[in-house]
Amino acid sequence: MRSKVLNHNNKNMLTQEVLNIDEYNGKTLNASITTWKDKWTYRDAVGNNSTQSGIWRKHKNFIWKDRVNASTGAYNTTITPTSNYFNWGTGTPTNNKWQNISEITKYTHWSLPVEVSDINNNFTSSKMSDNFSKVVASGNARYSEMYYSGAEYVASGNTFEGEIEGANYKTSTKTHTGEYAIKLTNSSQKGFRITGSVGRDHNDLSKDFRPGTYKVSVWIYNGIKLSNQIDLMVNGVAKKPSEKVYADSGWALFNYYITLNPNSNTDVYLKNKGYRYGIYLDDFRMHPISTSINSYVYDQETDELLYILDNNNIGTLYCYDQAGRLCSTYKELVNKNYFKTYLKAGGKNRYKYKRISKNSFRTGFKVVEKNRYKYKGISENKSCECKFGKGSSNSYNQY
Protein backbone atom coordinates (compact mmCIF):
# COMPACT_ATOMS: atom_id res chain seq x y z
CA MET A 1 0.00 0.00 0.00
CA ARG A 2 1.34 3.42 -1.03
CA SER A 3 -0.08 6.86 -1.70
CA LYS A 4 -2.07 7.24 -4.94
CA VAL A 5 -0.62 10.75 -5.21
CA LEU A 6 2.64 9.09 -6.24
CA ASN A 7 1.13 6.47 -8.55
CA HIS A 8 -2.55 5.89 -9.36
CA ASN A 9 -1.88 2.13 -9.54
CA ASN A 10 -0.95 2.00 -5.86
CA LYS A 11 -3.44 0.26 -3.62
CA ASN A 12 -4.96 2.48 -0.97
CA MET A 13 -8.00 2.41 1.35
CA LEU A 14 -10.17 5.36 0.36
CA THR A 15 -11.00 6.60 3.85
CA GLN A 16 -7.69 5.86 5.59
CA GLU A 17 -5.46 8.85 6.18
CA VAL A 18 -1.69 8.54 5.89
CA LEU A 19 -0.51 12.17 5.69
CA ASN A 20 -2.04 15.23 7.34
CA ILE A 21 -0.71 18.76 6.77
CA ASP A 22 -1.98 21.97 8.36
CA GLU A 23 -0.80 25.05 6.48
CA TYR A 24 -1.31 28.81 6.21
CA ASN A 25 -0.35 30.81 3.14
CA GLY A 26 1.53 27.81 1.81
CA LYS A 27 3.56 27.41 5.00
CA THR A 28 3.42 24.26 7.16
CA LEU A 29 2.01 24.65 10.67
CA ASN A 30 1.76 20.95 11.54
CA ALA A 31 2.34 17.66 9.76
CA SER A 32 1.80 14.02 10.75
CA ILE A 33 2.06 10.61 9.13
CA THR A 34 0.32 7.33 9.92
CA THR A 35 1.92 4.22 8.42
CA TRP A 36 0.18 0.91 7.75
CA LYS A 37 1.39 -2.67 7.78
CA ASP A 38 -0.12 -5.97 6.60
CA LYS A 39 2.24 -8.48 8.27
CA TRP A 40 1.61 -9.08 11.97
CA THR A 41 2.64 -11.53 14.65
CA TYR A 42 -0.24 -12.73 16.82
CA ARG A 43 0.07 -14.28 20.28
CA ASP A 44 -2.57 -16.80 21.34
CA ALA A 45 -4.00 -17.50 24.81
CA VAL A 46 -1.22 -19.93 25.75
CA GLY A 47 1.68 -17.81 24.44
CA ASN A 48 2.29 -19.27 20.98
CA ASN A 49 3.21 -16.79 18.23
CA SER A 50 2.12 -16.95 14.60
CA THR A 51 2.72 -14.52 11.73
CA GLN A 52 0.14 -13.77 9.03
CA SER A 53 -0.13 -11.30 6.16
CA GLY A 54 -2.89 -9.71 4.13
CA ILE A 55 -4.75 -7.41 6.53
CA TRP A 56 -3.68 -3.77 6.59
CA ARG A 57 -3.71 -2.06 9.98
CA LYS A 58 -2.33 1.14 11.47
CA HIS A 59 1.28 0.79 12.56
CA LYS A 60 3.31 3.94 13.41
CA ASN A 61 2.56 7.62 14.00
CA PHE A 62 5.09 10.32 13.10
CA ILE A 63 5.03 14.09 13.64
CA TRP A 64 7.21 16.71 11.97
CA LYS A 65 9.35 18.58 14.51
CA ASP A 66 11.17 21.59 13.10
CA ARG A 67 12.25 25.11 14.00
CA VAL A 68 9.44 27.65 13.91
CA ASN A 69 9.77 30.94 12.06
CA ALA A 70 9.13 33.67 14.63
CA SER A 71 7.47 36.02 12.15
CA THR A 72 5.12 33.54 10.41
CA GLY A 73 4.55 30.97 13.18
CA ALA A 74 5.13 28.22 10.63
CA TYR A 75 7.87 25.63 10.30
CA ASN A 76 11.00 26.64 8.41
CA THR A 77 10.46 23.63 6.15
CA THR A 78 7.39 23.34 3.96
CA ILE A 79 5.94 19.82 3.78
CA THR A 80 3.98 18.64 0.72
CA PRO A 81 2.65 15.21 -0.32
CA THR A 82 5.54 14.91 -2.77
CA SER A 83 8.31 15.88 -0.33
CA ASN A 84 11.11 13.33 -0.24
CA TYR A 85 11.50 13.38 3.56
CA PHE A 86 9.75 10.02 3.97
CA ASN A 87 10.22 6.67 2.23
CA TRP A 88 6.67 5.44 1.62
CA GLY A 89 7.88 2.11 0.31
CA THR A 90 9.57 1.11 3.57
CA GLY A 91 7.47 3.26 5.91
CA THR A 92 10.54 4.98 7.35
CA PRO A 93 11.63 8.65 7.45
CA THR A 94 14.58 9.91 5.43
CA ASN A 95 14.79 13.05 7.57
CA ASN A 96 15.25 12.95 11.34
CA LYS A 97 12.69 15.74 11.79
CA TRP A 98 10.02 13.07 11.37
CA GLN A 99 9.75 11.70 14.92
CA ASN A 100 8.08 8.37 15.70
CA ILE A 101 5.80 9.18 18.66
CA SER A 102 3.89 5.88 18.90
CA GLU A 103 3.71 2.39 17.44
CA ILE A 104 1.03 -0.29 17.63
CA THR A 105 3.12 -3.41 18.17
CA LYS A 106 0.48 -6.07 18.65
CA TYR A 107 -3.10 -6.72 17.48
CA THR A 108 -5.64 -9.46 17.98
CA HIS A 109 -6.97 -11.27 14.92
CA TRP A 110 -10.02 -8.98 15.21
CA SER A 111 -7.92 -5.80 14.77
CA LEU A 112 -8.02 -4.74 18.41
CA PRO A 113 -4.69 -3.18 19.51
CA VAL A 114 -3.36 -4.96 22.62
CA GLU A 115 0.15 -3.45 22.82
CA VAL A 116 1.33 0.09 22.04
CA SER A 117 4.73 1.75 22.58
CA ASP A 118 5.67 5.41 22.72
CA ILE A 119 8.72 7.44 21.70
CA ASN A 120 10.61 6.38 24.86
CA ASN A 121 9.91 2.65 24.50
CA ASN A 122 7.23 2.74 27.20
CA PHE A 123 4.39 0.27 26.64
CA THR A 124 0.69 -0.07 27.40
CA SER A 125 -1.04 -3.42 26.98
CA SER A 126 -4.30 -5.28 27.47
CA LYS A 127 -4.69 -8.98 28.22
CA MET A 128 -7.91 -10.60 27.00
CA SER A 129 -9.84 -13.78 27.80
CA ASP A 130 -12.96 -15.71 26.80
CA ASN A 131 -11.84 -16.02 23.18
CA PHE A 132 -10.43 -12.46 23.22
CA SER A 133 -13.87 -10.99 24.00
CA LYS A 134 -13.11 -9.46 27.43
CA VAL A 135 -10.25 -7.36 28.80
CA VAL A 136 -9.04 -9.04 32.02
CA ALA A 137 -5.93 -6.93 32.63
CA SER A 138 -4.58 -3.59 31.43
CA GLY A 139 -1.50 -1.62 32.35
CA ASN A 140 1.57 0.30 31.25
CA ALA A 141 3.72 -2.76 30.64
CA ARG A 142 4.70 -4.94 27.71
CA TYR A 143 2.21 -7.63 26.76
CA SER A 144 4.65 -10.41 27.69
CA GLU A 145 5.66 -8.77 31.01
CA MET A 146 2.16 -8.42 32.48
CA TYR A 147 0.16 -11.38 33.82
CA TYR A 148 -3.15 -11.89 35.61
CA SER A 149 -5.36 -14.89 36.31
CA GLY A 150 -8.48 -15.19 38.43
CA ALA A 151 -8.74 -18.86 37.36
CA GLU A 152 -11.90 -18.05 35.39
CA TYR A 153 -10.94 -19.07 31.86
CA VAL A 154 -8.97 -22.12 30.70
CA ALA A 155 -7.16 -21.90 27.36
CA SER A 156 -6.06 -25.51 27.00
CA GLY A 157 -5.06 -28.36 29.30
CA ASN A 158 -3.21 -27.03 32.33
CA THR A 159 -2.97 -23.45 31.01
CA PHE A 160 -5.27 -20.59 31.88
CA GLU A 161 -5.91 -17.88 29.32
CA GLY A 162 -3.20 -15.29 29.89
CA GLU A 163 -0.34 -17.82 29.54
CA ILE A 164 -0.42 -18.97 33.18
CA GLU A 165 -0.25 -22.65 34.14
CA GLY A 166 -2.21 -24.31 36.93
CA ALA A 167 -5.64 -24.93 35.38
CA ASN A 168 -5.56 -28.56 36.54
CA TYR A 169 -6.11 -27.30 40.10
CA LYS A 170 -9.15 -25.14 39.34
CA THR A 171 -11.90 -25.21 41.97
CA SER A 172 -15.13 -23.41 42.88
CA THR A 173 -15.06 -24.36 46.58
CA LYS A 174 -13.44 -21.13 47.81
CA THR A 175 -12.99 -17.96 45.73
CA HIS A 176 -11.83 -14.42 46.36
CA THR A 177 -13.58 -13.00 43.28
CA GLY A 178 -15.58 -14.60 40.49
CA GLU A 179 -16.52 -18.25 40.19
CA TYR A 180 -13.17 -20.02 40.49
CA ALA A 181 -9.80 -20.19 42.21
CA ILE A 182 -7.13 -22.92 42.40
CA LYS A 183 -6.37 -25.39 45.19
CA LEU A 184 -2.90 -26.83 45.77
CA THR A 185 -2.98 -30.08 47.75
CA ASN A 186 0.66 -31.19 47.68
CA SER A 187 4.19 -29.87 47.19
CA SER A 188 4.57 -31.20 43.64
CA GLN A 189 1.85 -28.96 42.20
CA LYS A 190 2.81 -25.65 40.63
CA GLY A 191 0.18 -22.95 41.03
CA PHE A 192 -0.08 -19.96 38.70
CA ARG A 193 3.17 -20.82 36.94
CA ILE A 194 4.90 -18.39 34.55
CA THR A 195 7.96 -19.20 32.47
CA GLY A 196 9.97 -17.16 29.98
CA SER A 197 13.31 -15.71 28.92
CA VAL A 198 14.89 -12.43 30.03
CA GLY A 199 16.67 -10.01 27.67
CA ARG A 200 20.04 -8.37 28.11
CA ASP A 201 18.79 -4.87 29.05
CA HIS A 202 15.81 -2.52 28.98
CA ASN A 203 16.08 -2.02 25.22
CA ASP A 204 16.16 -5.73 24.38
CA LEU A 205 12.62 -6.57 23.25
CA SER A 206 13.48 -9.93 21.70
CA LYS A 207 12.72 -11.86 24.92
CA ASP A 208 9.61 -12.25 27.08
CA PHE A 209 10.90 -10.07 29.91
CA ARG A 210 13.25 -7.17 30.36
CA PRO A 211 15.54 -7.46 33.41
CA GLY A 212 14.57 -5.73 36.63
CA THR A 213 12.34 -5.99 39.68
CA TYR A 214 8.86 -7.48 39.32
CA LYS A 215 5.94 -7.58 41.72
CA VAL A 216 4.01 -10.82 42.30
CA SER A 217 0.67 -10.59 44.09
CA VAL A 218 -1.79 -13.34 45.07
CA TRP A 219 -4.80 -13.81 47.38
CA ILE A 220 -4.56 -16.82 49.74
CA TYR A 221 -7.50 -18.21 51.71
CA ASN A 222 -6.88 -18.56 55.46
CA GLY A 223 -3.64 -16.70 54.91
CA ILE A 224 -3.15 -15.88 58.61
CA LYS A 225 -2.90 -19.57 59.47
CA LEU A 226 -1.11 -20.68 56.30
CA SER A 227 1.47 -17.90 56.10
CA ASN A 228 4.34 -20.36 56.56
CA GLN A 229 2.81 -23.08 54.38
CA ILE A 230 3.10 -21.32 51.01
CA ASP A 231 6.20 -20.34 49.05
CA LEU A 232 6.74 -18.41 45.86
CA MET A 233 9.34 -20.36 43.92
CA VAL A 234 11.62 -18.37 41.60
CA ASN A 235 13.99 -20.59 39.61
CA GLY A 236 13.85 -23.18 42.39
CA VAL A 237 14.48 -20.70 45.23
CA ALA A 238 11.73 -20.10 47.81
CA LYS A 239 10.71 -16.47 48.37
CA LYS A 240 8.78 -15.11 51.34
CA PRO A 241 6.22 -12.28 50.99
CA SER A 242 7.38 -8.73 51.60
CA GLU A 243 3.86 -7.53 52.43
CA LYS A 244 0.68 -9.11 53.76
CA VAL A 245 -2.85 -7.67 53.93
CA TYR A 246 -5.45 -9.67 55.85
CA ALA A 247 -9.15 -9.46 54.98
CA ASP A 248 -12.14 -10.10 57.22
CA SER A 249 -13.38 -12.65 54.68
CA GLY A 250 -10.51 -14.99 55.58
CA TRP A 251 -8.46 -14.15 52.49
CA ALA A 252 -5.00 -12.60 52.68
CA LEU A 253 -3.09 -10.68 50.03
CA PHE A 254 0.60 -11.64 49.76
CA ASN A 255 2.98 -9.39 47.80
CA TYR A 256 6.43 -10.53 46.66
CA TYR A 257 9.24 -8.62 44.92
CA ILE A 258 11.58 -10.61 42.70
CA THR A 259 14.54 -9.78 40.46
CA LEU A 260 14.84 -11.11 36.91
CA ASN A 261 18.49 -11.11 35.86
CA PRO A 262 19.72 -10.27 32.32
CA ASN A 263 20.24 -13.09 29.80
CA SER A 264 18.48 -15.72 31.90
CA ASN A 265 15.39 -17.90 32.00
CA THR A 266 12.75 -17.52 34.67
CA ASP A 267 10.33 -19.99 36.26
CA VAL A 268 7.86 -18.58 38.81
CA TYR A 269 5.10 -20.47 40.61
CA LEU A 270 3.41 -20.94 44.00
CA LYS A 271 3.99 -24.06 46.08
CA ASN A 272 2.13 -25.71 48.96
CA LYS A 273 4.92 -26.77 51.31
CA GLY A 274 2.87 -29.65 52.69
CA TYR A 275 -0.43 -28.45 54.16
CA ARG A 276 -2.50 -31.60 53.70
CA TYR A 277 -5.92 -29.91 53.59
CA GLY A 278 -4.97 -27.82 50.54
CA ILE A 279 -4.35 -24.12 49.96
CA TYR A 280 -6.72 -21.94 47.93
CA LEU A 281 -5.22 -19.21 45.70
CA ASP A 282 -6.94 -16.56 43.58
CA ASP A 283 -6.34 -13.32 41.65
CA PHE A 284 -2.68 -13.84 40.83
CA ARG A 285 -0.67 -11.07 39.17
CA MET A 286 2.88 -10.41 38.03
CA HIS A 287 4.24 -7.22 36.43
CA PRO A 288 7.25 -4.86 36.56
CA ILE A 289 7.35 -2.90 39.82
CA SER A 290 7.53 0.39 37.90
CA THR A 291 4.19 -0.23 36.15
CA SER A 292 0.53 -0.05 37.13
CA ILE A 293 -2.02 -2.73 36.33
CA ASN A 294 -5.78 -3.18 36.75
CA SER A 295 -7.59 -6.49 36.36
CA TYR A 296 -11.24 -7.35 35.76
CA VAL A 297 -13.63 -10.16 36.70
CA TYR A 298 -16.93 -10.79 34.86
CA ASP A 299 -20.18 -12.61 35.53
CA GLN A 300 -19.93 -15.95 33.73
CA GLU A 301 -23.61 -15.88 32.70
CA THR A 302 -24.36 -12.24 31.91
CA ASP A 303 -20.85 -10.91 31.08
CA GLU A 304 -21.46 -8.01 33.46
CA LEU A 305 -18.36 -6.54 35.07
CA LEU A 306 -18.33 -7.69 38.71
CA TYR A 307 -14.92 -6.65 40.05
CA ILE A 308 -12.10 -4.30 39.20
CA LEU A 309 -8.85 -5.01 41.04
CA ASP A 310 -6.69 -1.89 41.24
CA ASN A 311 -2.93 -1.50 41.14
CA ASN A 312 -2.69 -2.85 44.69
CA ASN A 313 -4.86 -5.85 43.77
CA ILE A 314 -7.64 -4.49 46.02
CA GLY A 315 -11.14 -4.93 44.65
CA THR A 316 -14.13 -2.81 43.75
CA LEU A 317 -17.40 -4.76 43.54
CA TYR A 318 -20.30 -3.76 41.28
CA CYS A 319 -23.89 -4.83 42.02
CA TYR A 320 -26.77 -4.88 39.53
CA ASP A 321 -30.54 -5.18 39.61
CA GLN A 322 -32.48 -7.73 37.56
CA ALA A 323 -32.68 -5.28 34.68
CA GLY A 324 -28.88 -5.20 34.53
CA ARG A 325 -28.53 -1.65 35.86
CA LEU A 326 -25.73 -0.75 38.23
CA CYS A 327 -27.27 -0.07 41.64
CA SER A 328 -24.36 -0.04 44.09
CA THR A 329 -20.59 -0.06 44.26
CA TYR A 330 -18.44 -1.47 47.07
CA LYS A 331 -14.81 -0.59 47.64
CA GLU A 332 -12.39 -2.92 49.39
CA LEU A 333 -10.49 -0.85 51.95
CA VAL A 334 -7.50 -1.61 54.15
CA ASN A 335 -8.01 -1.43 57.91
CA LYS A 336 -4.68 0.01 58.99
CA ASN A 337 -5.22 -0.80 62.66
CA TYR A 338 -5.62 -4.52 62.10
CA PHE A 339 -4.04 -4.93 58.65
CA LYS A 340 -7.40 -6.19 57.42
CA THR A 341 -9.70 -5.23 54.58
CA TYR A 342 -13.40 -4.90 54.02
CA LEU A 343 -15.66 -3.74 51.22
CA LYS A 344 -17.40 -0.45 51.86
CA ALA A 345 -19.99 1.18 49.64
CA GLY A 346 -18.44 3.97 47.60
CA GLY A 347 -20.16 5.55 44.60
CA LYS A 348 -23.89 4.88 44.57
CA ASN A 349 -26.39 5.43 41.79
CA ARG A 350 -29.52 6.93 43.37
CA TYR A 351 -32.89 5.71 42.13
CA LYS A 352 -36.40 5.57 43.59
CA TYR A 353 -37.32 2.19 45.04
CA LYS A 354 -40.54 0.84 46.50
CA ARG A 355 -40.54 -1.19 49.73
CA ILE A 356 -37.03 -2.47 50.30
CA SER A 357 -35.96 -4.79 53.07
CA LYS A 358 -32.76 -4.33 54.99
CA ASN A 359 -29.68 -5.63 53.23
CA SER A 360 -26.82 -7.07 55.23
CA PHE A 361 -23.31 -7.93 54.19
CA ARG A 362 -20.84 -9.77 56.35
CA THR A 363 -17.39 -11.35 56.26
CA GLY A 364 -15.65 -8.56 54.41
CA PHE A 365 -18.48 -6.42 53.04
CA LYS A 366 -20.07 -3.36 54.59
CA VAL A 367 -23.14 -1.77 53.05
CA VAL A 368 -23.65 1.97 53.49
CA GLU A 369 -26.69 2.72 51.33
CA LYS A 370 -29.62 0.78 49.81
CA ASN A 371 -31.20 1.42 46.41
CA ARG A 372 -34.31 0.13 44.66
CA TYR A 373 -36.09 0.97 41.40
CA LYS A 374 -39.72 1.83 40.83
CA TYR A 375 -40.88 0.36 37.52
CA LYS A 376 -43.93 1.87 35.88
CA GLY A 377 -46.71 -0.68 35.47
CA ILE A 378 -44.72 -3.42 37.21
CA SER A 379 -45.52 -4.36 40.76
CA GLU A 380 -42.64 -6.80 41.20
CA ASN A 381 -39.70 -5.45 43.17
CA LYS A 382 -36.36 -5.78 41.43
CA SER A 383 -33.43 -6.83 43.56
CA CYS A 384 -29.97 -5.36 43.70
CA GLU A 385 -27.69 -8.38 43.73
CA CYS A 386 -24.01 -8.69 44.51
CA LYS A 387 -22.67 -11.88 42.99
CA PHE A 388 -19.64 -13.15 44.86
CA GLY A 389 -19.22 -16.48 43.07
CA LYS A 390 -19.95 -20.10 43.92
CA GLY A 391 -17.21 -20.53 46.46
CA SER A 392 -16.91 -17.01 47.81
CA SER A 393 -16.56 -16.67 51.55
CA ASN A 394 -18.59 -13.46 51.27
CA SER A 395 -22.38 -13.68 51.62
CA TYR A 396 -25.37 -11.42 51.09
CA ASN A 397 -29.12 -11.19 51.58
CA GLN A 398 -31.17 -10.29 48.54
CA TYR A 399 -33.69 -7.46 48.65
Which labels suit this protein?
32 strands, disordered C terminus, 399 residues, 47% strand, mainly beta, 3 domains, elongated, 14-stranded mixed β-sheet, Jelly Rolls
Write up what this structure looks like:
With 399 residues, the chain is mainly β. The protein folds into three domains: 19-118, no CATH class; 141-292, Jelly Rolls; 298-396, no CATH class. 0% of the residues lie in helices and 47% in strands. It has no helices and 32 strands. The protein has strands at 19-24, 27-43, 49-64, 86-87, 92-93, 98-107, 113-118, 123-129, 134-139, 147-149, 154-156, 159-160, 164-165, 170-171, 181-184, 191-198, 212-221, 230-234, 237-239, 243-246, 251-260, 264-272, 279-288, 293-298, 305-309, 315-321, 326-335, 340-345, 361-362, 365-366, 384-385, 395-396. Strands 1, 2, 3, 6, 7, 8, 9, 24, 25, 26, 27, 28, 30 and 31 form a 14-stranded mixed beta sheet that branches. Strands 10, 14, 15, 17, 20, 21 and 23 form a seven-stranded antiparallel beta sheet that branches. It has a four-stranded antiparallel beta sheet with strand order 16-22-18-19, with no helix packed on it. Strand 26 (315-321) and strand 27 (326-335) form a beta hairpin. The protein is elongated. The N and C termini lie far apart (60 Å). The model is unreliable at 350-363 and 394-399 (pLDDT under 50).
